[in-house]
Amino acid sequence: MTNIYPEFERQIPRQGKEELLKQKGQAIWLYGLSGSGKSTIANALEKLLHEQGRYVVMVDGDNLRSGLNAGLGFTDEDREENIRRASEVVKLLVNNGAIVLVTLITPQEKFRAMAREIVGTDDLKEVYVKASFEACQQRDVKGLYAKAAAGGVKNFSGKTSNFEEPETPDLTINTEESSVEESVAQVLKLII
Ligand code: ADP
């Protein structure tokens, strides 16, 4: 990169931030179909950790799309760029000592591999929030499944664009079997 001089060396190192916050910077990446339960779990976890005096930052797909990633759509290429940018944001936050909870559909293994590559496997744990397409459709929290069925959502995950089941997540939570409380307790165990 010409004429770009990153300042990392002259800035306060990660360790200084972690000592200040009294925690280890780390990311928990929750992925799964729309309506599988990612935000419900992450929001409850944020509250719990916050009450414990821990510093948590949420990185949510829809939130990013309303700002940093406005303008990106849902084609394969745009999803990849969406996840690349999200991963860089996550890395920045982790390197500044934050506990980062990521909620992004992240439908394909190649996207997850990119997130691992950018954030680093030492700092990233993957949680597959699992629920069948039918269950998510029935919940239809955001009304997207009804819209998709009517043909109003392009490249909707689980329908026209495929969601690949992960092979080796750090944790799988089946939200058709576990309660929200049980799910939150399971994810909590992953946090150092
Ligand atoms: P996502 O963020 O994955 O799109 P949401 O969290 O917005 O999904 O919606 C998930 C829905 O499923 C909510 O209505 C929630 O109450 C319900 N639900 C049922 N069981 C669970 C569970 N174990 N964990 C999380 N959500 C659950």
UniProtKB/TrEMBL annotation:
<keyword id="KW-0067">ATP-binding</keyword>
<comment type="function">
    <text>Catalyzes the synthesis of activated sulfate.</text>
</comment>
<dbReference type="GO" id="GO:0005737">
    <property type="term" value="C:cytoplasm"/>
</dbReference>
<comment type="pathway">
    <text>Sulfur metabolism; hydrogen sulfide biosynthesis; sulfite from sulfate: step 2/3.</text>
</comment>
<dbReference type="GO" id="GO:0019379">
    <property type="term" value="P:sulfate assimilation, phosphoadenylyl sulfate reduction by phosphoadenylyl-sulfate reductase (thioredoxin)"/>
</dbReference>
<dbReference type="GO" id="GO:0005524">
    <property type="term" value="F:ATP binding"/>
</dbReference>
<dbReference type="InterPro" id="IPR027417">
    <property type="entry name" value="P-loop_NTPase"/>
</dbReference>
<dbReference type="GO" id="GO:0070814">
    <property type="term" value="P:hydrogen sulfide biosynthetic process"/>
</dbReference>
<dbReference type="InterPro" id="IPR002891">
    <property type="entry name" value="APS"/>
</dbReference>
<keyword id="KW-0418">Kinase</keyword>
<dbReference type="GO" id="GO:0010134">
    <property type="term" value="P:sulfate assimilation via adenylyl sulfate reduction"/>
</dbReference>
<keyword id="KW-0597">Phosphoprotein</keyword>
<keyword id="KW-0547">Nucleotide-binding</keyword>
<feature type="binding site">
    <location>
        <begin position="32"/>
        <end position="39"/>
    </location>
    <ligand>
        <name>ATP</name>
    </ligand>
</feature>
<dbReference type="GO" id="GO:0004020">
    <property type="term" value="F:adenylylsulfate kinase activity"/>
</dbReference>
<dbReference type="InterPro" id="IPR059117">
    <property type="entry name" value="APS_kinase_dom"/>
</dbReference>
<keyword id="KW-0808">Transferase</keyword>
<feature type="domain" description="APS kinase">
    <location>
        <begin position="25"/>
        <end position="174"/>
    </location>
</feature>
<dbReference type="GO" id="GO:0004781">
    <property type="term" value="F:sulfate adenylyltransferase (ATP) activity"/>
</dbReference>
<dbReference type="InterPro" id="IPR050512">
    <property type="entry name" value="Sulf_AdTrans/APS_kinase"/>
</dbReference>
<dbReference type="Pfam" id="PF01583">
    <property type="entry name" value="APS_kinase"/>
</dbReference>
<comment type="similarity">
    <text>Belongs to the APS kinase family.</text>
</comment>
<protein>
    <recommendedName>
        <fullName>Adenylyl-sulfate kinase</fullName>
        <ecNumber>2.7.1.25</ecNumber>
    </recommendedName>
</protein>
